[in-house]
Specification:
By secondary structure, this protein is mainly alpha-helical. The chain has 12 helices and no strands.
């Protein structure tokens, strides 16, 4: 009996020792949008936007995606969330093109789709990523400093609660890499998180648009770390996917 008790105690002790290691290995391992990795309508919209297509051509691709999703074999919350993210991307692009009115229209559509996704039972982290992106994009449109200041804390809170979510990991990596130090930016930590994301991507796969995010993040991170060879390599990998990203293009030119 005494030996059995000792064995149980030892087993519990070993479990406590290994639990943090197991948890850490699971960071970023859940990709809620994996079923959409090969979605041609979503891919077409992003390809057009991220290759710098004319803003006038965006609505046709957006509404083609919307019509496609009506009959697509995805969870209903995923359809709403995907439309929300697509609208966010379109809104951000309209803002970059200088069309504030169109940007606001897309952003309002995005927020409506995000709210619908929550009502349809979307995972908390999936809509949390979209809400954080909405906050940051609205800041770029209306210049609200309070929205800009909320973003880093919101992302950190999301990562603390849901480190298992692949897209939360990407958001946290980007937040550290691009935020100013005054609001907690840390380029070394951002690079490390993107390196972790790349390992997960190589193991589990990822959509082409997520691959671009990882490659462009690594290119920027390695550039700031003064690793010219890796910065150039990842900038070219990112450019081979989408060609209109200003930061990637600057790095390609810098190292060409």
């Amino acid at each position: 009996m005494r030996n059995r008790i000792a064995l149980i105690v030892l087993s519990v002790f070993m479990l406590l020792l290994t639990a943090p290691i197991f948890s850490a290995s699971e960071d970023g391992s859940v990709n809620y949008f994996a079923p959409m990795m090969e979605d041609e309508y979503y891919a077409s919209l992003l390809e057009y936007v991220f290759n710098g297509g004319a803003l006038e051509g965006v609505p046709d691709l957006y509404f083609a995606l919307e019509n496609h999703l009506v009959l697509a074999d995805y969870d209903e919350w995923m359809k709403a969330a995907s439309l929300g993210r697509a609208a966010l991307i379109c809104g951000r692009y309209a803002q970059q093109c200088g069309d504030e009115g169109t940007a606001i229209d897309y952003m309002e559509m995005a927020d409506g789709h995000i709210a619908a996704a929550k009502e349809l039972g979307a995972p908390e982290s999936a809509t949390g990523v979209l809400e954080a992106l909405s906050l940051s994009f609205w800041y770029l449109i209306d210049g609200s400093l309070s929205k800009g200041m909320k973003f880093p804390g919101m992302v950190d809170k999301l990562y603390k609660a849901h480190p298992e979510d692949f897209h939360v990991l990407l958001l946290e990596a980007d937040r550290y890499l691009h935020s100013p130090g005054i609001v907690g930016g840390n380029k070394k930590k951002g690079l490390a998180l993107f390196q972790e994301a790349e390992m997960i991507m190589d193991r589990d796969g990822a959509a082409i648009w997520d691959r671009f995010s990882i490659y462009s993040g690594l290119a920027y991170g390695y550039d700031k770390a003064k690793d010219k060879e890796k910065a150039a390599d990842y900038a070219l990998k990112a450019y081979s996917i989408y060609t209109a990203d200003e930061t990637v293009n600057e790095l390609v030119e810098k190292y060409s």
